From TrEMBL:
This is ABC transporter permease. Keywords: Membrane, Transmembrane, Transmembrane helix. The keyword Hydrolase does not apply. The chain crosses the membrane at residues 12-36, 48-66, 86-111, 135-159, 166-188, 208-227. It comes from the Bacteria.
């Protein structure tokens, strides 16, 4: 367990990169959105205006974990840490980070609601249906997708480190073909209405907690399997 903790601490060697950059980017996005809402009528709708700017936090966290696997993993293996130990340390950090970020996002969402959307009716930190009006539940709704994005970054990093540029492009192309193929299939079946109805019938817990956690588990398993025979 001590070695797992040590592996986790490797991710904290540069806290400015690990934590500062994601929050600096999302804070910049938040500031831009507030300015837009102040200068325009973006919040004029009955329930105010919704922004998707908080997605920048999730995407940046994913990129940080990609970098961790491509840059920190070789250093860890040079310190005689096994691939499995490093993965466990990474998973520990990702879980704690997702929980911590969920708590912060829940607090920001509560402040946002109490201030009437920062005085301009802006819904930024938990846009749309992701605002569940319950602080404890909001932690899960905001934190579970963060865990999925973190493991997506781990998985991408493993592909980049093990299979290089060719593997990365194959992954990108495969993702494009699968998602595009599904879109073509749904369009051919004229089933977009059914897809929309299914999504509408699902609860926020299903869409924002259960599905992301399930995806995180799948990505975690794939990334662990991909670490085998990975060369530093």
């Amino acid at each position: 367990m001590n070695r797992v903790t040590a592996a986790g601490r490797l991710h904290l060697m540069n806290p400015l990169l690990t934590f500062g950059v994601p929050w600096a980017i999302v804070a910049s996005s938040f500031g831009i959105n507030v300015a837009v809402w102040v200068l325009t009528d973006a919040g004029a709708q009955p329930r105010g205006g919704v922004s998707g700017g908080v997605a920048s936090l999730y995407i940046t966290v994913m990129i940080i974990y990609v970098q961790s696997m491509t840059q920190v993993l070789p250093f860890a293996m040079g310190m005689s840490l096994t691939r499995r130990t490093f993965w466990l340390g990474t998973a520990l950090v990702a879980a704690v980070q997702a929980l911590g970020y969920g708590i912060v996002l829940s607090a920001l969402t509560a402040i946002e609601g109490a201030t009437g959307g920062w005085g301009v009716r802006l819904h930024f930190w938990a846009p749309g249906v992701l605002d569940v009006d319950d602080a404890a539940l909001q932690v899960l709704v905001s934190g579970a997708p963060m865990l999925a994005f973190a493991f997506a970054g781990v998985g991408i990093g493993v592909v980049m480190k093990r299979w290089g540029q060719v593997g990365t492009w194959v992954l990108a192309l495969t993702t494009l073909l699968v998602t595009g193929g599904l879109a073509i299939l749904v369009s051919w079946r004229r089933a977009w209405g059914d897809v929309g109805a299914w999504l509408t019938d699902q609860t926020v817990l299903t869409l924002a907690v259960a599905l992301p956690l399930g995806l995180a588990v799948v990505l975690a398993g794939l990334s662990l399997a991909g670490l085998r025979r990975l060369v530093p």
